[in-house]
Amino acid sequence: MQEFRRLSEYFVSQAETVCQELMFKWKPPINLAAVKDDLANRTAGFSFIHHRANRLDKAYLDLMNLAYEPGPNSLSRRGTWDWESVFRYRKKVQSLLLMILGMFASTGGQFPRTTELFPLEICNSTTSERGIYVYNGSIVFVTRHNKAKRSTNREFNVVRFLPVRAGHILYQYLVYILPLDTMLGREQDHLHGRQVKTRERRLLFSDPDEPGHQWRAVRLTAVLQQATRRVWGQPINARIYRQLSIGITGKHVQEVHRPFNRFDDKSAQASPNVVFAWQSGHRPLQRASTYGLDGAFPTKLQPHLLQLYEWASVKWHEFIHQPSKVMPSAARPLPSTAVATTRVDANRPCSPEILQPPPNFILVWNDGHSTYKTGLGVGFWFFIPRFLIPHPNVLSQHPIKPIPTHV
Question: Where is average pLDDT lowest: 70-79, 172-181, 256-265?
């Protein structure tokens, strides 16, 4: 399983490296919890970037000024664009998009079908809704299953929450890097005397010269084969990786509770684990037998459904050791065995790399979804660099303690 986890880390770490190069080492402050979005707004051209409260539609100009300033990595020379440097920069933007494709395939949950992944739109169009949103402090992408719509004429929406590192990368790409790349493309058209094309990118996974044409499935297969050959020593295509992710979810990710009807996904006694079947695009019974779909359930992105999908994604983040909400400290990275949410109690001994909290409390590595009843009430412990912070209910009896330097 550790080898399986390395694939998502490979995509995220490679994307972070390329993203920092494209941002010229500039790290703008990013707080996804403060980003506003309107999931019900279907106006053509709208996305969270165009929400008035965010004021992000012109944010890329700061990156453009940084790119134009003289320096070793500048895109300008003698007061004009250095087109050779611009060409290399735009090629690197495409490399980043390939790593983002790998992140979408490996970090948000079970692997989506390529037929639902490639049509993802950055903003609304006149005939369709976008697939990228900001919800509850995370960037999410919504896939709408064509397989269900063909048989039932109803959409089957599946939501995947990206872990925080992947979310920050996608945020920088959409807010800063992509608009700058679009502007540079228009400048190149002017330079060569070509008719300026409509270069606004509506599809997330598309080429800059053909923004209206989505990538083909062979692109994802090539990305996965190259990455798995490097990480696992053996190339794996998209179809096999999808089966691996579904099988691993069933064996290693799903919660183990009291006995229940595993094909029940409608009654009040239904297990929350049915969300894993939904996330793979199946109803529980059909997933176990014919892989068919009944798109009548679920069909709308209501808050309680989003919470279930968030729970499923956080469980996946736990498994692949990626933080869900809080960025790890760059100066003092978290141990690889404790990046995701981790419970620590008497029945589950903690790793030597994890600092043991007071008895009967829980150590939470990201934003925390678990609680533990104690004589003092409900206790939460949150990890941030150098400190363990107790819940206010227990602060008076358990003062803040610095992390020992040997941890």
Answer: 256-265
